[in-house]
Amino acid sequence: MPLPGDQPPVTTPQRVVVVGGGVSGLAAAYHLGCAGRPGLEVVLVERDDRLGGKVRTQAIGGHLVDTGPDALMVRAPAMRALLEDLDLADATVAPGAGGSFVWSRGRLRTLPPSTMFGIPQRLLPLLLSGLLSPLGIARAGLDLVLPRRTVPDDEDLSIGALVRPRFGSQVFDRLIDPLLGGIHAGRADLLSARSTVPEVDALARRSRSIYLALRRQPRREVPQGPALVSLDGGLTRLVESLTGAIEAIDGCRVRLGTEVESLRRDGDRYLLTLSDGSELAADAVVLTTPAFVTAPLLADLAPDAAAAAAEVPYVDAACVTLLYPREALTRELNGTGFLVPADEDLLLVGCSWLAAKWPHLADPSTVLLRAMVGRYGDRRFMDMDDDELVARVHADLVRTMGMSADPVEVRVQRWPRAMPQYTVGHRGRLDRIARALGEVPGVHVIGAASTGVGVATCVGVARRTADEVLAGLVSAGDPTRGLA
Description:
Elements: E1 14-19, H1 23-34, E2 40-45, E3 57-60, E4 63-66, E5 72-73, H2 77-85, E6 92-93, E7 101-104, E8 107-110, E9 115-116, E10 119-120, H3 123-129, H4 134-141, H5 159-167, H6 169-184, H7 193-196, H8 198-206, H9 210-216, E11 228-231, H10 236-248, E12 252-255, E13 260-266, E14 269-274, E15 279-282, E16 284-287, H11 291-298, H12 303-310, E17 314-325, E18 337-339, E19 348-353, H13 354-357, E20 366-373, H14 386-401, E21 409-420, H15 426-437, E22 443-445, H16 448-451, H17 455-472
Parallel strand pairs: 1-2, 1-16, 2-12, 7-18, 16-22
Antiparallel strand pairs: 3-4, 5-11, 6-11, 7-8, 9-10, 13-14, 14-15, 17-20, 17-21, 18-19, 19-20
Helix pairs in contact: 1-10, 1-17, 2-17, 5-6, 11-12, 12-15
């Protein structure tokens, strides 16, 4: 209770502008707004007419199917907490099947359990899978006896350069490359081990044998419940819930169909020029845009950061969802799907058996398959129209799964420049961005290109960044400094 004569503190109006309405931007704006900071305005600016970025859900065969990311890592504390905050915890759907396959040498072969990003932790399951020839198994076993390789701390190796000399080409080509290709749409010969698989990179640098180092790791207690879940109705529900929550917070607003054309310093604040000709002053700015959009925005403000962001390569991808009559199946869907190595003569990168993977998408009369195409160095699908793309994907599914009838309904979702690639030198690029932004207080860069792919990772980084933004803002000061 204030004493007689006490005056309430003067609150300086302040504004944070979040650029980009994907998951990172939505989560950042939500956590900024939830802080309840008096006098704080949060503005989310998105150039498209919809929010959610690559989170998109479409109807097919009476089901709502995700054509972008389709799973949430709920073992990540920030992701789990956000679902609870938004009352979505009860809407989660656990996978209905486990295990997956790799297309290799003319058939689907079981992906061995107990692998870490494709690196075997047990040799017997690898032998039984049939993925490797006897010679390939023997070559993989050389990791046990090969001498230790010393890697300087400042040297960034590709996953291929780190792992292939230890386990040989078959483990790399038939396990590691397709698995990481399915996650990143990239080639493991180009991806940075330090940035993409830091756990493996650390083991390889401090151990003589990667296999023995994996075996010696202490067993971790596995948390209860599934690691990955979906949402009944699709992940668009997360976007809709976040949007509704943001719009309900006093001081928060969303501007759709508005592009930020430039960002510059204006005294001790920042000025954003928008595509409608207006300007927006901000005390702090959070850029959650793709690196190729972020780079020109930083060109005048932090040229070194802009140059580093412009170096991040991207891969085009497409998702083709196909609805088949149930009788078209000639095999049991006893897993979540399969991956395809890059050296196989297929357009497919992988296929999810949605009817088995997610129970809410199961149907007694039809079956849903989700095919992914496009990876680093393979842009063949970009020259195809939708009809040709569907025909090529169907032909690959006939070859791999024996589909005996045409699909009755399809959806094609193209994602140009969809996936940032953490190629060799990525950590150095991020360090350059961080150093340059150290001279520009109040400007933050987050998103898949810098802080990790996956919805849960983006949510976690957005929450931490919101805390950093709030800590950097002045909570009280000159009452004449208002919002412009």
